[in-house]
Amino acid sequence: MTNTLHIIGGGMAGSEAAWQAASHGIPVTIHEMRPETGTFAHQTGDLAEMVCSNSFRSDDDEQNAVGLLHWEMRAAGGLIMAMADRHRLPAGGALAVDRDAFARAVTETLRAHPLVTVAPGEISALPEDGTWIIATGPLTSQGLGQAIAAETGAEALAFFDAIAPIVYHDSIDMSRAWMQSRYDKGETEEERTAYLNCPMDRDQYEAFIDALLAADKTEFHEGETAGYFDGCLPIEVMAERGRETLRHGPMKPVGLTNPHQPDVKPHAVVQLRRDNALGTLYNIVGFQTKMKYGAQADVFKMIPGLENARFARLGGIHRNTFLNSPTLLDDQMRLKSRPHIRFAGQITGVEGYVESAAMGLLAGRLAAAELSGKTPPPVPQDSAMGALIHHITGGAEAKTFQPMNVNFGLFRPVDGLKGGRRGRKDRYKAYTDRGKEAWQGWLDAYPLPRQTD
MnmG N-terminal domain: which residues (predicted)? Predict the structure, then answer.
């Protein structure tokens, strides 16, 4: 059919784009190379498979930019948020999910939609005609990556992303560890005890840092450089920046009380978060790593409570590719040299599951409007969606463009509010109130049926 939308890639962005377009009555074909052609990070052929963390991060839609993005996606009838809510796990103020159940639900929902077809096989060349969205993510295949580079006249930029390890819960020593969310955050007891905590005293922390720095690391291939995204730094890279860095990052000991030793303040705390609904698997929060497998097991077993840990998955590292979007994409996320092709997701230079799915949502809606002969108004810059798309399609400095999470630094200031830490709560609330109003106005001007079942 001439009005079919073709989407390359069935990850977060591709899945959300397909849902949005199909919900608007547009036939969609998702071209997914898995499982026929796999990647070293994926383990299944499911759509929207989560390969790193199982968390969509903060769900606070009043004080957090990520939470506002959650709100906007829900308001738009987003599939990713609907399935995340259905399969959520306790995680304090965060939105974490049972990753396998989540991916299966997304896959089953899309395959059941009468307007969605999932076509297996790899596409390694840029399409010459039709309407397309390329949402191949950070693990774009070599063939397609080369085709994109040839078309844009420049090599795709790259950085390295690391995967955190997963531990079997029954191998954790709970006489040393305890369950608590920082500052007991959460509305239910389950939320307030969503994280598993392993304390370290000063000597244990110093020994851990020494072992981390000395451990064997993954070697890079010739010609590759380690341009890490700061929001996903391997722990050993953080340790190299200073021995106290981890204590002010993923191992910060604040907001926690060890019930085994309530009068002793830990020097550092390693947190683990439930990774599946059964509670049999826990991932080590913020512990992305490029250590070799043998070294990982040795170093992580130095953590109190993990001395006898068994690992369902050890950490890893992979190369992520992304476009220099400010120079290559227009404000509709179309490739300027081939406007029948849109890009969505992490390949556009956003970072994170939520941001990737959000750009898929926009790309799917914009493509659906185009195929329906409609012209939606510009995405409002004061929304979280608008702040992101504005950043990647022109707001960022092209010469220094790097992957970016959504954050309030991308938002236009609200007049009349105090700056600095003291005014932060009021300022963030003003951002989210304004963002919700702007986004809802855009949805009302270009409505789309809400279909989440």
Answer: 5-374
